[in-house]
Amino acid sequence: MLLAIMLFVVVAISVVFFLYARSLRQAQKEQTQGEERFRQMAENIQEMFWMIDAETKKTLYVNQAYETVTGRSRESLDQNPTSYKDAIHEEDRSHVLASLEEATHSGRFDERFRIVQPTGELRWVWARGFPMRDADGNICRLVGTAQDITAQKQAEEQVAQNLKLAQSAWVEAEALRKATLSLVQDLRMDFVLDTVLQALTDLIDCECARIWLLESETYLFVAREKLQHETAKKRANYPLTLNTADVPFLSRILANQKSVFLSDTKTEADWQTFKDHAHVRSWLCVPLIASRETLGLLSVGHSLPEALTREDVRRAQLLAIPAAAAIQNARMYECASIYGAELERRISDLKQAKQALEQSEEGRRLSEEKFQTIFRSSPVAFSITTLDDGRFLDVNTAFERRYGYNREELLGHTVHELNIWDDPADRARMLAELHKGVPIRKLVTRLRTKSGDVKPTVYSADKIQLDSQPCVLAVSEDLSE
Q1: CA distance linking residue 257 with residue 248, whole number of Å
Q2: Is 50 domain-assigned?
Q3: pLDDT, tens digit, for every residue of 243-298?
Q4: CATH of the domain at 134
Q5: Is the residue at 18 inside a domain?
Q6: Residue 10: its pLDDT value, please?
């Protein structure tokens, strides 16, 4: 009986071991088949599949896509399991590796970064990872995928660039629209110049912007300016004026009627001749042209080289078209206003003259003689010149005596030709005031005689209309007197 029981136990144990061995072989077979299916799947997907050791960061496995994405062989990882770090762009490397280190604790890894292939080609990848834990729950491995998103990134950048261009175009169009509307709403010269200057600085990021107007054939003066940084040198209280004959490249602009762009002013040999612009390193200039006539210039400058671009030149050229038309219209409006006031004055004078003629023709003749007598015999120097170019129309004896010219030597010549003003800027300031309708009273200046002597002078002037042209009636007295 005992022997039978022992035999039964032995048989039972044998059966159990047989069944266990068969079950173990089946599990190993299924595991091998599972691993093979995993490898087949991993080797045939386009995304890169990777597995690294959480502690050493050494590569344990990567699929074939690693070679396609990075341009590096899997054998290189066998030789150096951390060589994948070299593929990461140097500007992204520290951040990505820090994030990978953090993932060994948090289990979360999700980064977009650049890699550089051995050929130098730049690619963008999106890498994501998750943890594998041991029996104690500690993260022992990180596994994940990496997808090539270069095409997506390029598309995003192109969209962003297009949006930026569209936004810039909209801002530019809106600024030009507002400027054009404003320029036709008010024909006063002051308003026109202020509007043009504001539009210019809205369109172009700069440190200095100026509107230059031609005073005569070669003389320019700054009608408006906006400076981001005032110079340490105290600025004069009259407009900056220069003779383009002394600045060759400005003369070329006026002669050719073409825009000029200097990305670095040090490349322009004649730049040092440009007064008050020594600090400017990048500069552009666009002529203001209306009816084929150059009215002046728009100029923009920056203290840094290459701070301005060809695109800024294009914007300035677009603004110059309505700006030139508005300035021309403002001049016509001013002339019309002057002519209107002059017409009213002349009508009133004609009425008075008619009454005077009706009363006494002799009285009119005596009145004219009286005026001529006062003008000719006055001990104070009187002169009549044209407003724009300063051409002499008449002088009295006191003027001849004070400046050493006889009347015939003066008539028909300009103050510029005779170099009478010691500082032309004084005349520019005088003209600016007269254009505003403000008479000049006791302006202290210096005038040059025929012999070249410079005389300190107290200068007074009024703008008058003589023979249908604006003129200046001036009195010049010796300062000491």
Answers
A1: 14
A2: yes
A3: 888 888 888 888 889 999 999 988 888 887 777 787 899 999 999 998 888 999 99
A4: 3.30.450.20
A5: no
A6: 54
